[in-house]
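Hi L., both proteins are below.
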Amino acid sequence: MRLRSLPTFYLILACLLAACLMLSGCASAVPILTPAVTAPRPSPTPNPEQRQTQEAWGATPTSRPSPTPWPIASPTEPQAFMLASSVDLNPLTGLPAESPNLLQQRPVLIKLANWPRELRPAVGLNAADMVFEYYIGFQMNHFAALYYGGDAAVVGPLAPGRLLDARLAAHYQANFVYASAEPTIEGVLKSVLPEREFSRGFLGCPAICTETEAQGGNTVVNTAAVREHAANLDQPDFTPALGGLSFSEEISDWDEVALRLSYLYADFSVMDWRYDPTSQQYQLWQDAQTADGSITLQQTFDRDSEEPVAFENVLILFANYIEYESDLHDIDMREGDPNQQAFLLRDGKLIFGTWGSSGPEQPFQFRDLNGQPLALKPGRSWVVFASTNTHTSQTTPGNWDLTFSVR
């Protein structure tokens, strides 16, 4: 296998770092993955839901420069799914669906808590086709798990809805399940997802159930029961259009080795992905507090199956966070711009690329730096929304540290 040539920016950066090390011993310099700012970019233009949120909260997002002066492209028609020769294939995983009938229904997007730590471990993550991770403030993160080609009987712990959940559910044409939401956020969810947002208290067991203390005490979701409830709402006939991803069992070109990637929100808040060559998956380790109060990293296992939480693909998408308050954020998705920076981890390798969507109700697409569809490994994908100010460094060959910063 040959190593693909790095973009000119990375070659220049490598030369500068090498010269710095030889001349001044500046080994502590932290490179930024994205190119340097060459021109200021105006504040993102709020979409109607973002304007509604600003007015309700009495806030205006802080103007932030973008690390790249990417032009915003005109929206384009979504790409045809590259593995569409079989109608039984799940377009989000490249694998057969549990039942072809599921692909004719809306996916189910479930909001999951990762904080406080007492709510861990989660249950049902490994059954999701895709899991989205994003910052919620105070150096913490939450997840949104998407179920399309298969169901899970127990998924939890259910978490409150956020602004970004409305965007994700719209992009993936999904029904959305969440615990609760503040009035303004609930208003956005109902506006963006009419008859498609289901919260605890309005949708009962077996779709949304609160466990006993002996079971853990969390609120959990049965995705099949949610689908059945949605079918009974007499919604208009709708077949999701979620194609466009490309899959390949093997890759011959890559940019770097990536045996471990650690995403640090803070020294006490860490998502650490480690490649396991036996399963050919990235296994998740997270921060944990020991008996003496110190913080360490421990492997994450599913609460019920006790299997490692592991995914075939880990995607890092660099995006501009909009901060209304310290615990209220949105993301400027820049629909129509296919050139937002990203990279993919699969098979112990790292590939630089781009991401974007053709419209607010179209799924995300991923391309390599030559503009070709990025080849995901058939299987499930974990997608991280990193800020455009995230700092990236390769600490040792194959080991990467990403440090989050919202500003």
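That was the first. Here is the second:
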Amino acid sequence: MPSYDNLIARAKEKLEDLNAAELLAAHILPGEDEFLPVVIYPHIQFYQPADVDALRAQDTLPPSIPFTLYVHIPFCAFACTYCHWVKTINPDPALVEEYLDVLIEEMRLAVDKLGGERIPITTAIFGGGTPTYLTPPQLERVLTAVHKYFDLRGCRQFSFEAEPRSLLGEVGAARLRTLRDHGVHRISMGVQSFNDDILRHMGRQHSGDEAREAIAAIRDADFESLSIDLIYGYPGQKHSDWLDSMQTAIDLEVDAWQLYRLRILRHGERQAAILNEFEQNRGRFPGDDEIRLMKMVAAISSEDAGYKQHFTRIFARGPQHVTHFMVDYCCRLYNVIGLGPSAWSNYHRTFTVNVADDFDRYYALVRAGKLPADRALLRDTETEARRSFISPLKNCRVGKRPFAKRTGMDLREHFGPEIDRLQGFGLLEEDENQIWLSERGRFFADETVMQLFQKRYLPFPQVGHDLMPE
């Protein structure tokens, strides 16, 4: 790795070329510290309480759209200060067993609602929470149920999220064996940092050395792929801390990493504790200029080491190491079966979200034979067209023919003025077949695609322009 001074000099030069000031003046970038990633469009905060069965009855599910699978395990051994997701800390073992009872019953209900005995799945992922919080027998139980209700013979990638300490020692080795025995291909591990001081501040219980040990254990268990998560923009985090973590990942020859900007504002179902610290001690948090510098030096060091960028935040040694679940729901726009509290699903034009914090209500709905979704959004023609443009644009490329086939619209005719505007800022590139983010647009990917939102779905009112429809 080049010297820190050299990397930072290169990063500053590239950032100068990207000219964030121009995009701030044009209101393409939001104000200081206002950042939300564009994961799905529209964001779940805009879904309304609804009779999900009645809403789905208005929709027609084309049988040709495949399904991906997401399973939520809402348990953790500790609380991270940056976490926005639904979870319970160190639950009573009986509660975990009860949860698995209900989760497996939800699997049966989901399959029954779709009219099949086993639903073919293209990709699958367990997220959380901490899926590897479960004991080896509990993992055995839930994974056996997955194979009972879902056909994974055509599953290109089965991923499992993990926490380092849960993979250590004899119990950790047993967990890894259980995952491998049930066809899990890829482990995505939340390392977040290799710096012990930063980890303690985050509320993480593992150390940098334990993260290294867990990486070695995953390698010894012979999984096809290993990805880790790293967070930048944390309070008190120095450029040298961040670059040390990047260099450690490179030295360990991890297959891929996802680089997350610290999300201060609520992104999931719960507001993370980090907001309190931000409001009380904002001076400890790096500003947007520093955060962009961290992002750029990470990109340069990753690419120097032979890792190519995917999905604007993932760097991988090859496409086989990226999360194929994201390929399917972001780029191919496949349907999603989401199981567990707060999990979201997509059936053709209908987004649904399961009951979040009220576990008793989640249990009651499933035991009454009902899918536990309580919020939904049926996308109208314009919203569906924008989702079909925004999601592939941010994460891969938009094919003009596939867009027309999906929506019945000509991409250029429908979005011409907005495309021209973004091209005028050097954010998009285009040929006769595709539209994609330029180098500048890819660096500011979330902010760029937000310019294609409908006004009613904007998280920041000041971000936008006159071409946006309501």
